[in-house]
Specification:
By secondary structure, the protein is α/β, with parallel strands linked by helices. It is about 30% helix and about 10% strand.
Amino acid sequence: MWLWQIGIICISSARTIKSGKKPRKGVLKMTNFQENIVPAENQNSGNVFLHINGGIKILFAGNSITKHEPKPSIGWNRDCGMAASCAEKDYVHLIVERLKKYDPRLSYGIAQVAAFERGFFNKTPDMLYSAAREFDPDIIVMFFGANVSKDYDNMQNPPKKFGEAYAELRRYLDKSGKARVFHSEGFYIRPVLDAEKEKAAAESGDVFIRIDDIRTREDTHGAFNHPGDTGMQAIADRFLEYLEPAVKKLTEK
C-alpha cells in the first residue's frame, strides 16, 4: 500500500464532544440544528487528498463534514470529518472500511470543496481539483452545499447558478466519463440547493440520495452543529445502501 498525499493527511484522536454538554473553551455553541456555524475559510491546507492502493477508486467530494484539519482557534483539534470523535468514525472512513470487504485494495480520495462552495461564481474546477480528476475515480460521492452563501437562496438573477457550477464539477471529476456518481441532499436544509443538485443528478442519469430523516434528528447533530458519531454512522449507512451494490458489481467484472 502506498499513499499519494496532496495537502496534509493524518489521523488524530481526541475526546468526544457531545451535544448537550458544556462546550470546551473556544467551541462554538450549537443554537439551531439547521445553522452551519463553522467558518468556511481555512478548513484544510489543501483541496485534494488521495489514498492510492491499487484497487477500485472512490472519490468523496465534500466539505468540513468530509474533512476538516485541526483548527484550535474554534476548538477543533482533529483531522477528520467534522464532528466525528475520531477519523475512524467519520462517514468516509466508515464507508471505506465496509467496502474493503469487497476490495481490500480499495483506493479513496477526498476533494474538499469548501473553496468551491464559497467561490463557484468565479472559480472553475480545474483551478482547484485537477489532482482529483487525474485520480480518475470509478465512483464519486457528492455531498456538500453548506458553505454556499445563504444569500444565494433568495437571488433572482445570480451571476451563475449553483446547479450549473455543480454539474460542471461533476463532469470535471469524472475524467473517463464512466464513473458511477451519487449525489445527496446536504446535511443542512437548503431547498434551493437540493433542488438544483437533484436536477443536475437527473440530467446526468445519476442517483440522488435523500437524508431528510437523518438531518432533522437531534441525535445526529454533534459539536459545531455537524454530525457527531451517531450522525456519521447514519449517513454512512444510508450511502452504503447505494455504494455497496455498486462496488460489488465492479468487483464482479
